[in-house]
């Protein structure tokens, strides 16, 4: 039996409250579980002690028997010092989306065209001055 330590959602609409449970991985998220191991209330401030409550001894017991924590529960356990922090790699996190990239390209093209336009009249300006000087002399 593949065991998971994961979150089970409770609470009302738009007011989530999660229980940390040990459950068979084949059971639904909010379905049958074997043991309740703690709670997580995301509505509380991050520095609140009541935000995450876990029975670390029981979690360790289940992990010794082969239970795998979900990603979110693993982060809770890392913060509690039960698990070692693992390296996470998300190289695409900082890159903008396709539309933002297109807008940046358009902006760069406009800036380049404006720079070329600013440089071009500066070169032609002396020629215009000489033509206007000849007109004033006559």
From TrEMBL:
Sequence ranges of Acidic residues compositional bias: 125-138
Region listing for Disordered, in residue ranges: 77-138
GO cellular component: a single term: cytoplasm
Tree of life domain: Bacteria
Biased composition (Low complexity): 114-124
One GO term (biological process): translation
Segments of skewed composition (Basic and acidic residues): 100-113
GO molecular function, one term: structural constituent of ribosome
Keywords assigned by UniProt, alphabetized: Ribonucleoprotein, Ribosomal protein
Annotated InterPro entries: Ribosomal_bS16, Ribosomal_bS16_dom_sf
Entry-linked Pfam families: Ribosomal_S16
Family matches, as SUPFAM superfamilies: Ribosomal protein S16
Keyword Ribonucleoprotein: yes
Family assignment from sequence similarity: Belongs to the bacterial ribosomal protein bS16 family.
Protein name: Small ribosomal subunit protein bS16
